[in-house]
Design brief:
By secondary structure, this protein is mainly α. It has 16 helices and 9 strands. It has a 3-stranded antiparallel sheet with strand order 7-9-8. A two-stranded antiparallel sheet has the order 1-3. A hairpin with a 6-residue loop joins strand 8 and strand 9. Helix 4 runs antiparallel to helix 5, helix 6 runs parallel beside helix 12 and helix 13 packs parallel to helix 14. The longest helix is centred in the first third of the chain and has 26 residues.
Length: 450
């Protein structure tokens, strides 16, 4: 009753709620718990002592607790704002601004519940499966609440998104760092894909892929310099002197600091490097490789037979080189046009349109290689989903998608964690596989994250 007395107060509270949103813990977890990284030349135990590299995950793991806690921080902040807004009467001329602030608070709460659904659901498609705690009120410090079902959590997400939609003025189209109608559409598209509701997923995704063009090679490169937002639907802004301007921890920080201590060059103390299996999956002309691999890297074409490969083959990650003069600090991309195109590919594959699925993958590859790439030919749905997973691996490397992609589609596409055998040799966490001739894979039970 003291903090929130005006619409301006509510707008400041909204910025505080946005400040609770972060995905660095998801990015770091996906990289270390799957196959995006390898132990770096300056590694001092990162990812090893806590067991992430070796797929050790239990109730005390920092990844699980930080994802859970961070989302409820955002839910608490947004719900306090929603409840406080009921006692604030906008002055003449402030009505639309009041509605916009309130609508974004509902979006933040929906997003946080969606993240919980993503990581703490045993079955995305079963409404009776166990999920997280659905909270649409400010609980007391003594409340001990039970977990809700998938259906109950999704009902709250849907209600919040519907409320937000009703509040946003018809012409409201914010910039990419604020939530608006396009954010809602993107969230619904991703949610529909996770639920395998591919008819709705395709319609929602197409509405955005028609509106947001894929970045060309230059635009894609500059997107991770934070100087081009051509295909960015929504991102979390990170600036010098904001609360995330610090080394990355479970509570957030520079995304680039998930992989290096100082900067994104070989002299920047890289404690994680790009995995050899990921590097080998890229076409040399792919702008995604140029963006993700720093030029200071040492690439040994004979790494497999070189006994000194750990120092002769150093693949330095530069997906987050830094901006505004601060190395390793970059905006965090949450929704991009390419995800919408690949959701369309999923929908086509699921609906038996294998040629359509191939055409969507080709659309991505044409943009990233800057040339007319060959059209794939799939014999069955499994081949199509396997190719979609392969493309998502390249498109979203170091962006936090890999773990969830394998969790929801790995079995359908006959894909799982694939590490180069020499990366595996560093920490002995793989089983040999004939699927990737020069790689190793882990058992699919690694994805039973409940």
């Amino acid at each position: 009753e003291i903090a929130y007395q005006s619409v301006e107060d509510l707008s400041l509270g909204l910025l505080g709620a946005y400040n609770e949103l972060d995905i660095t813990n998801m990015i770091g977890f996906a990289s270390t718990f799957t196959d995006e990284i390898s132990i770096g030349i300056t590694n001092g135990g990162q990812g090893i002592t806590d067991g992430r590299i070796n797929y050790i995950l239990d109730a005390t793991s920092g990844a699980a607790s930080s994802m859970w806690t961070n989302q409820y921080d955002a839910i608490n902040a947004s719900t306090r704002l929603i409840e406080a807004a009921a006692a604030v009467t906008p002055e003449a001329g402030e009505e639309d601004f009041y509605d916009i602030v309130l609508g974004q608070a509902y979006c933040i709460r929906a997003w946080a519940h969606f993240v919980l659904f993503t990581y703490f659901t045993t079955d995305y498609t079963d409404n009776n499966a166990l999920c997280a705690i659905a909270v649409d009120f400010v609980p007391s410090i003594d409340d001990q609440l039970p977990r809700n079902t998938v259906g109950e959590v999704l009902a709250l997400i849907d209600s919040d998104l519907n409320t937000a939609t009703s509040l946003f003025p018809s012409q409201f189209q914010p910039q990419s760092t604020f939530m608006g109608p396009d954010f809602i559409t993107a969230l619904r598209a991703r949610l529909a894909a996770y639920r395998q509701d591919y008819s709705n997923a395709a319609t929602l995704a197409k509405s955005l892929s028609d509106k947001y063009p894929l970045a060309d090679k230059d635009q894609y490169f500059n997107m991770y310099e934070d100087t081009d937002d051509t295909e960015v639907i929504f991102k979390l802004e990170r600036n010098v002197n904001d609360p995330y301007d610090a080394q990355a921890t479970g509570g957030g920080g520079w995304a680039g600091a998930l992989y290096a201590f100082v900067n994104s060059t070989i002299d920047g103390s890289p404690y994680f490097e790009m995995s050899r299996a990921l590097y080998n999956a890229f076409d040399p002309n792919d702008i995604r490789l140029e963006r993700s691999l720093d030029p200071s890297s040492m690439v040994d074409p004979n790494y497999e037979t070189n006994p000194e490969y750990e120092t002769s083959d150093v693949l330095v990650i530069r997906k987050y080189p830094g901006s505004d003069g601060q190395p390793l600090l970059n905006d965090l991309k949450v929704f991009r046009a390419s995800e919408m195109v690949l959701i369309e590919a999923e929908a086509a594959a699921a609906q038996g349109d294998l040629t359509g699925a191939a055409s969507f993958i080709k659309e991505i590859r044409d943009a990233r290689l800057g040339e007319d790439t060959p059209m794939m030919n799939f014999a069955n749905e499994q081949e199509a989903f396997g190719a979609i997973l392969d493309e998502r691996r390249l498109e979203f490397c170091f962006e936090g998608h890999r773990y969830i992609d394998l969790k929801r589609l790995g079995q359908r596409g006959n894909r799982d964690i694939a590490r180069d055998r020499l990366d595996c040799a560093k920490y002995g966490a793989c089983e040999d596989s004939s699927f990737y001739p020069t790689s190793s894979r882990v058992n699919e039970n690694s994805f039973k994250f409940t």
